[in-house]
From TrEMBL:
This is DMT family transporter. The keyword Signal does not apply. The chain crosses the membrane at residues 38-57, 69-89, 95-112, 124-140, 152-169, 181-201, 207-228, 240-259, 265-283. Coiled coil: none annotated. It holds the Pfam family EamA. Residues 17-139, 151-280 form the EamA domain. The keyword RNA-binding does not apply.
């Protein structure tokens, strides 16, 4: 195998490991029963501590160039809104609906990337995006606009939009900064924005939820999200977004194994369509 092939294989292994780690967000979000703002505030604060320690250990400079400060601040603000709306969707519904409504973001990214990064729109991304949407249609059991699941889908769509824009902003920064540094600044902004939350809620229940909070901070956020940002160095944002559509499948499997949320046949069909789009984009990107 050539050096180039090894390099590409390593990139694909990294992105798939990142997807597996990030897919734990759904089960953790459903498992943690604290109010959503408090959960996100603790998640951001714990992740910030881990990331600061890692950056200090690796000797990563915390300096940002002047023109990059506002975009990084905006990415942190979008990250906070993304997490708040996503976890609210999870608490309103289940792991499948919460995760899969969020994963409309690859479709949004495919349309937004040419506007943000002046890249050429690829028609294949439209086709793959439609395939993902069909997968989501079969995964969500009921599109009745009068029920709680539909409200959850609305929050998931807002979360998806914030996530897509945040990723596009970070794509322009990863060539100059480490993914861990960018995540550190985002966690600082999330923690700062949600600092009043610690005075607005009863903190006594936190001790009973420490395992879930530690898991979502360390596994999902520090490890998963940092690896995810690093993937922008090797792939377009749209490619990373479409490849990441495998996350709901991982999340649903984890939910079935550990939370007894057993998917029906429509969920299996939807997951198959999503996986098909991932396989196609993986083959295209590898070539």
């Amino acid at each position: 195998m050539s050096r180039s092939s090894k390099f590409n294989t390593g990139n694909f292994l990294e992105i798939n490991l990142a997807m597996l780690l990030m897919s734990t967000s759904g089960p953790f979000g459903k498992f943690i029963t604290l109010p959503v703002p408090l959960t996100i505030a603790i998640r951001g604060s714990l992740a910030l501590i881990f990331l600061l320690a890692y950056c200090k250990f690796k000797g990563i400079s915390f300096g940002l160039e002047g023109p990059d400060r506002w975009p990084v601040f905006l990415s942190g603000l979008l990250m906070a809104v993304h997490w708040l709306t996503y976890f609210h969707a999870l608490q309103l519904s289940n792991v499948a609906i919460g995760m899969l409504s969020l994963f409309t973001y690859p479709v949004m990214t495919a349309f937004l990337e040419p506007l943000f990064l002046k890249s050429r729109f690829q028609k294949i991304h439209l086709l793959l995006g439609v395939l993902v949407l069909f997968g989501i249609y079969y995964l969500v059991p009921d599109f009745n606009f009068g029920n709680q699941n539909t409200i959850a889908i609305g929050f998931g769509l807002l979360s998806a939009l914030c996530y897509a824009i945040r990723n596009l902003i970070l794509k322009t920064k990863v060539d100059r900064y480490q993914g861990s540094l960018l995540m550190t600044y985002q966690m600082f902004i999330v923690g700062l924005l949600l600092l009043p939350v610690f005075f607005a809620y009863d903190l006594n229940a936190i001790g009973q939820q420490w395992m879930g909070l530690l898991g979502v901070a360390l596994i999902t956020t520090v490890l998963g999200h940092t690896m995810f940002i690093n993937c922008f160095k090797h792939f377009s944002v749209t490619t990373v977004s479409i490849l990441s559509s495998v996350q709901p499948v991982y999340g649903i499997l984890i939910g079935a194994l550990f939370m007894s949320e057993i998917p029906g046949w429509s969920t299996v069909l939807g997951g198959t369509l999503i996986l098909a789009s991932v396989v196609v984009e993986s083959a295209r990107s590898y070539r």
